[in-house]
Amino acid sequence: MMINNYLKIALRGYLRNRRFTFLNLLSLVAGLFVAYVGITYIKFENSYDSYHENSDRIYRLVRTYRSQDYSIIGFPSWSDEASEEQQQQAESLKSSPGIEEVTQFISSPTTEFITSGENQIQNDGILTTNTPAGFVKMFTWNPVLGSLDNFSRGNKKAILTASVAEKLFGFDFYSQAELISSPIQIGGENYELVAIIENVPVNSHFDFQVALSTDRIDYWGSRIYLQTNENSKIAEVEDQLNSTIATFNPRLAKDELYFGHYLQPIESIHLNSNILYESKTPGNKKYITLISFFAGFILIITLFNYANLTLAIKSKESKTIGVRKAMGAQNSMITSQFIIEGVLLSLISIPFVGILISLVIPKFNELMGTAIASNLIQDPSTFLILLGLAILIGILASLSPSIYLSMRGAVSLFKEDLKQSNFQQFPIRKYLVISQFVILIAISSVSFLISQQLEFVDRKDIGYKKEGILYAYTSQVNQEIFRHKLRQIPGVIAVGAGSSFGLQAFNQGTYKLEGLENVYDDSNQLYLDLEGLKAYDLKTTLEGNPSTGLTLINRTAAEKFANVKGVRVEDLIGTQVITEPEYINEETGQIGFPFTIGGIFEDIHLFSLHEKVTPYFLTISENVEMDGRSIISYYPENSAEVLAGINSIYNELDESFPLELEYLSENVAQLYAQDRQTADLLLYFNIIAVFLAALGIIGITIFLTMARKKEIGIRKVLGASVFSIIKSSTKEYLILVGVAFLIAWPIAYYAANSWLSNFAYRININQLVFACIGLITFIFTAILVGIIAYQAAQANPVKSLKSE
Q1: CA–CA separation, 62 vs 72, rounded Å?
Q2: N or C: the chain end with fewer CB closer than 10 Å?
Q3: CA 135, 140, 143, 148: dihedral to nearest 10 degrees?
Q4: Long-range contact list for 360-363, CB < 8 A, 24+ apart?
Q5: pLDDT > 70: what percent of the chain?
Q6: What CA–CA distance (Å, rounded) separates 406 from 230?
Q7: Cα–Cα distance between 775 and 103 in angstroms, integer?
């Protein structure tokens, strides 16, 4: 009965203060929605690979060589490893104590033709394994048609994901049971289709769309995963594995640059990897932390808004509370009423949050590349957390009025009216408002500096031509004729061969300068022909018509070598550098692979600006053949004609695989995809924070203006101008914003500097940014307060003086 009474009083209060109830509800919906986004995003990022049934016992084998870790483990004979030797490696690893299952595979980004009967499509994401039994036993894939057991028996078997099957067989492939065991051709090879599985979950650290079983992996190495026995001690398993590897690869074990293998838990790969050749870009803990702080701060703004407006509304009802106390109401009853009212409104906001989630989360998943549930019912654990947060916010927001008003005596409550209760002088109100401004200034400053860094990335001269460069791939047989015809296309500047740029970091090599003993391991080797050099428009010291067979070093390497040798950079030409000095030719006794410095090229950002430029060695050769790649430089304004010409020429070649094109500008942009995703999300959070702060400022200002209605009327009668009334309303906020600015400054600087530390090349943090954001915050607040104060000042003073 008492609960029903409390609910009735609460609902009447909401209706009586419709304007403030609406502002509170709007604030709660926005804040709880951001909380849902933050919680589910963090859960998603920490859920990678946990869907595998035995994920707690699955590990990736990682090799440490030189000073780098490798996720692809090279075969003892590299690309020349026979199928029997590859199988023997897997069997040896499986026989190692503590190991239950082993699988090794490699994924290819190359696009291939997939043919079934008269149906043909193009697709990439093809995974090849020569240990199919381990692949289906260790990892959890959900079959739609067929059996995974069949995949583990024999070779030349294929598994398609649902998305590929839909493209190849149509939307009704689910009902076509006859597809299983049918022949299918992939990349010109015949396979038996044995299963169609659900798409690989987004929260997998590796991806594929087609899985093939073969007797040999046609690559220099493979990704190796192992499942340990239950209760195995990982340190002991690692020791045994290294001993096992030493038996079938003794040459590696004796290599002075080899530092062993270790096991990396599959569940920790996404957020704890700094390893070469990852299948997908790993997550970034700093970015996740920043997103969680933004979401948390927005939730705090929501709480402060709710607490402020609740305190304001309840201070208005002091006489009503006095009547209830005079009628015998206990302090606990008043407190309970406040808390129920606070919690009830929070709970009322949940359905609206659910609607917002269903509308926005699909777009969020597209932006961030996630698979977060767009329905609260689909994620019950998060729903319960959200419910708990709503209740907690309701309780915390009710504490201030509970403490201040329920503890007051009935007589004192009767004596005070809205103005005399002097809500605007409550210290707690000022603390809450200052805290809101601190969060708003900090979030806005960090968001602005992040956007400035990304603008810096876009403007930065990376040392080579980025726009108007694309890579086209053909078979080695057709490369010469293909390039010859490409050069005849109008708008094409140069067609060369060699290394691609705009890459993820790859392995570095060792080297030393002739006559010196120090060995370094921070170089990257590049190859280009003269046309490739022209295509990239690299700046070099070469003049006239340079010959091939030269090796150039970049400016960073030149400055390093000049410093080591104590000579000028110009004097390095002709100096010999020995790469891989640990290698000795048994027949000739030659140490390493020496080259003579033939020139210098200006630094390029081969990788992203996250990576520091290190020594690069560029060999200029006549016959550079790398993955069938042709480097095509063209005028961007002729892109349509050039693209049409490339397609026409390629169709004449009768290649066995589809034309594959890569734009260098897109490759470079992809290096910063994660940064831009984070920046976009933080920008949206910043907009929500500004919106919530505006709601809070509007609500409190409206309330305070109502409290000062008579005062404003008297001042107008006494001749006060509209400007003076607006000035008196806004001057307090100048002090509050000023205090908030001093607190937010170091917080924002630390957060922004932490994010920028992910970049080797970054902007300098201009301290004026924080001052400008603080000034904009005050101007924004003054405009909102000024508008409300102006409306109050324009009111007829006679009406305000007649009230009450």
Answers
A1: 7
A2: N
A3: 30
A4: 360/33, 361/37
A5: 90
A6: 59
A7: 60
- C-alpha 127/C-alpha 158 separation (Å) is 10
Confidence of residue 535 (pLDDT cuts 50, 70, 90): very high
**In contact, 685 and 34? CB cutoff 8 Å:** yes
Give the model confidence (pLDDT) of 60-104 as tens digits: 999 999 999 999 999 999 999 999 999 999 999 999 999 999 999
DSSP string, 227-266: EEPTT--HHHHHHHHHHHHHHH-HHHHH-TTEEEEEEEEG
| Closest by Cα among 127, 129, 132 to 109 | 127
The pLDDT score that the predictor gives to residue 418 is 42
Question: pLDDT at position 626, please?
Answer: 85
Report the distance separating Cα 219 and Cα 239, nearest Å. Answer: 27
Nearest Cα to Cα of residue 194 among 130, 252, 259, 150: 150
Q: Whole-angstrom Cα distance, residue 124 to residue 342?
A: 55
* Gap between the Cα atoms of 551 and 548, Å rounded: 9
- Identify the pLDDT of residue 111: 93
Q: What's the average model confidence in pLDDT over 181-199? A: 96
DSSP 498: B
Q: Coil, strand, or helix at residue 407?
A: coil
CB 136 within 8 Å of CB 148: yes
CA angle 711, 715, 717 (to 5 degrees): 120
Cβ proximity of 105 and 131 under 8 Å: yes
Count the neighbouring beta carbons within 10 Å of the beta carbon of residue 285: 11
Read off the pLDDT band of 708 (50, 70, 90): low
Spatial separation of the C-alpha atoms in residues 387 and 383, rounded to whole Å: 6
Supply the pTM of this predicted model.
Answer: 0.90
**Alpha helix stretches (DSSP H) within 708-767:** 709-717, 722-756
| Locus of tokens 């509007």 | 698
Answer whether 311's CB lies under 8 Å from 428's CB: yes
Q: Could you write out the DSSP letters of every residue in 130-182?
A: S-HHHHHHHS---EEEE-HHHHTSSSSEEEEEHHHHHHHH-TTGGG-GGGTT-
Query: Residue by residue, what is the 3-state secondary structure of 293-322?
Result: HHHHHHHHHHHHHHHHHHHHHHHHCHHHHH
How much is the pLDDT for 336? 77
Q: Specify whether the CB–CB gap between 385 and 336 falls below 8 A.
A: no
Strand ranges, E, within 497-549: 509-513, 520-528
More confident residue, 322 or 444: 444
The helix (H) or strand (E) run that includes residue 122 is: strand 119-123
Dihedral sign for Cα 316, 319, 320, 324, please: positive
Per residue in 645-654, pLDDT tens? 999 999 999 8
Given a contact cutoff of 8 angstroms between Cβ atoms, the answer to whether 307 and 396 are in contact is yes
Between 315 and 44, residue with greater pLDDT? 44
